[in-house]
Amino acid sequence: MAYKIAIGTSDKKSVNLHFGEIESVSVYEVNESDGSYSFLEERKITRDPEKEECESGCSCGSNFAVKVGEVVSDCTYFLVAKIGPKPHRLLQENKVNCLEAPFEIEEAVSKLNGYYISHKKRESHVF
């Protein structure tokens, strides 16, 4: 079985972008059984600074977090080098599993797939 992940990367070699630096995400498909992965597409995130303020008028980027969440909503995980607590919480509220993984993509995918498999096994146990 395969699943999709989105990665904040500027060079397609490493997870090297902080959430706030993202202008696009790279989407990969990961094969659960052997951990192999393949690039699917690049998705642009159009920034509109006038609309990035939240309802209260601050510039916390909460609307940007919601927009990114929409772009990666079909991905099981979203990997970034770093993310602050507020955008992380907003992504979680929108059912986006965002993880900090400041590694080479190959290492990040390997670690993530191990986590994915162990998490999936725990969910399948009936108590």
From TrEMBL:
Domain (Dinitrogenase iron-molybdenum cofactor biosynthesis): residue spans on this chain: 12-112
InterPro entries: Di-Nase_FeMo-co_biosynth (IPR003731), DiNase_FeMo-co_biosyn_sf (IPR036105)
Name of the protein in question: Dinitrogenase iron-molybdenum cofactor biosynthesis protein
Species: Treponema saccharophilum DSM 2985
